[in-house]
Write a structure and sequence with these properties.
The protein is mainly α and about 170 residues long. About 60% of the residues lie in helices and about 0% in strands. It contains eight helices and no strands. It has helices at about 10-30, 35-40, 45-65, 80-95, 105-110, 120-130, 135-150, 160-170. Helix 1 (about 10-30) runs antiparallel to helix 3, helix 3 packs across helix 8 (about 160-170) and helix 7 packs antiparallel against helix 8 (about 160-170). The longest helix is centred in the N-terminal third of the chain and has 21 residues, at about 10-30. The protein is globular and about 45 Å long.
Length: about 170
């Protein structure tokens, strides 16, 4: 009996970045709206928010020298388009690793009164892009809301989606 699969990676740094890319898209954004991951991704406007957080994370990964490599059992990369890869890996997580009631670790942490990896995931994206003279406005909004929740200034709630969607729309020019 086994509980998972193991992959040996030659480029562990890039593999860690790819995992952070998908985590930036899923963990804190879905926790902020207090929904299981699949429900958060289906919530109106949230898939775009989550993907944009992942796109910014991919920009940070590449700015930091990471290569786009397959992880979590995905086949070799067939695209040189970073955003398409983010879409593929995020879809794979939703399809393969999420059940209808899957609560991300960050939401579980908040529900137990613990802090989540806000700074270590989305904050890292903001910091890395800033160190390269670039901005990560979606991840910055995610960090802001995540810290407000952790400080008790805001509840995790689907209502928070409005603030993230407003940020997305401002970035996308909608």
């Amino acid at each position: 009996r086994n509980s998972g699969r193991v992959e040996v990676m030659d480029d562990i740094r890039s593999a860690k970045w790819m995992k952070l890319v998908v985590n930036a898209a899923e963990l804190i954004p879905s926790a902020i709206v207090n929904l299981p991951l699949n429900d958060a991704a289906r919530f109106p406007g949230m898939l775009e928010v989550m993907r944009l957080a992942g796109y910014e994370a991919m920009q940070a990964a590449q700015a930091d020298g990471a290569k786009i490599i397959p992880i979590i059992g995905m086949p070799p990369i067939t695209t040189n388009h970073p955003e398409r890869y983010v879409d593929q890996i995020f879809d794979e997580v939703l399809k393969t690793f999420s059940k209808p009631d899957t609560l991300v670790t960050s939401l579980q942490d908040w529900r137990k009164g613990r802090r989540a990896e806000v700074q270590e995931v989305n904050g890292w994206v903001v910091d890395i892009l800033q160190s390269h003279g670039r901005d990560a406005p979606m991840n910055r909004k995610v960090v802001e809301l995540g810290f407000e929740i952790e400080a008790g200034k805001r509840d995790a709630s689907p209502d928070n989606s409005k603030l993230m969607i407003e940020t997305y729309e401002a970035i996308a020019g909608n």
